[in-house]
Amino acid sequence: MSAPFEEHELLPRPLHDERARQQFVGAFRGHLASRLMPGNYAVYRARVEPGFEREHGRKPADRHEVRAAMQREPSYQFWSAMQRRSQELMWESVIDPTERLLPELVARAKRLARRAGRTARGSLALDPGCVVPRYHTAADIHLQPGGYHTEFTDDDVAAGAVYDRALNIYSAGGTGPRNEVLGELLLNYCRERYPELQPARLLDMGCAIGNSTLPWARAYPDCEVHAIDVAAPQLRYAHARARALGVGVHFSQQNAERTSFPDGHFDVVVSHIMLHETSRSALANILRECLRLLRPGGLMLHLEIPRGRTPLEKFLYNWETWNNNETFAGYMTDADLAALAQDAGFAPDRVEFVDHVVRRSREQRLYSEEPYWKILVARR
Amino acid sequence: MSSPADPVKQPPTRPKGHRPVVFDDPAIDQLHAAYVTLATELAVAFERIDTLERLLERHAGVTREEIEGFEADGAVAESRATRRTDLAQRLLRPFREFREDQIARAEHARSAPVRAPDEP
After folding, report:
1. How distant is the Cα of A322 from the closest Cα of chain B, in angstroms?
2. Domains, chain A, with CATH or none
3. How far is CA A103 from CA A162, A235, A269, in A?
4. What is the reported pLDDT for A119?
């Protein structure tokens, strides 16, 4: 069992059966990831690839040919149906207690936002004029009903509360007791590679509930840490959550494609698996905006989900593209982010798109036999 | 505080976007989805019963508040975790066995010598 999830003031506290439901879905997902997903590799090698070779006299050339063959494979069909259903059940299990407790959660978030004094660090600036882009509204990302952004009541925090608890279930505990694993991962990479770095101002783009932002704010206590997102319910929740956990972050509702910060304002700009939730034009805009926001010598770090090395891996990573409303992830599969950063104006010798291998437990494995991460690193 | 640009009265219960159909007959998709739910509810019921039994061990009478407030820790949490894993394994066992058989047969066929067409 991984470390227990740490409760805090903003998390809806489930009743007996609600908690049991969440825990079962988490255990079921863990079992699918550790015991069933690897079988996709085994059945591909034993049946699907040999079958394709018999028919075509060669191996599948790309992920599209793998997809056509795998979709006919009964055991892949079964795994896919289970994986999809577990994702739907995950949201259902979290939404029930959140809706039941929503008035109380909104009140708690307001109390924390109003709090004054030494513990009232950080700030929240919402912009009613902020347009939620089409890449959020066209389909609900990750199947979360209403997506990251939809509001159902005044001062709504539901989408944030749902996301916080669901992330723990999604990863079967793999995102750690405070859902901070990805923030820590990128922070550790940064500290190992740039031990001298002491940023005065840092920006986290597409922060959602700020779970990946907080490790940065803790690591650099003298740094002014900003975090932006387009989704107001996430930001309200993120601000109250950061206060409940005693960390100071300045949250504001802004699109990362074009922010209100001045030129050269930040020493570091980061994001955590955000780029693949955008669009082709938005990605180009975001990279240009990063260049504008960084001071000369400033550092850009974008953590991304790997998209696979072999046709089979590429196909499996794209399961989420077709089945979990990761609509832009398909394009990201073959995109060269280093080249895109150069197109945005970063100098060619100052950009890298690195493979970052991290030891993970079997329980945390999603689609790869050898888990790794991608990091887009660039200095202005 | 901002007000919603597109106010929604009722939270949606299903995600907006494409719903994939995995099997040739969509009814099979539905059947799979339904019994995963059934399994989830079974897990919930097991846990409820477990709670009641443990409370009954402690007291003569049981109140609703006591049930709602019950949290597993230590050995109880461990035994529940084992039970959840056990249920998931039992639920998926026919599938695992089906796949193992398929892989074994495929590997056997590949390693077996090729016979001439007129061989018995």
Report:
1. 7
2. 1-380 (3.40.50.150)
3. 14, 17, 35
4. 63
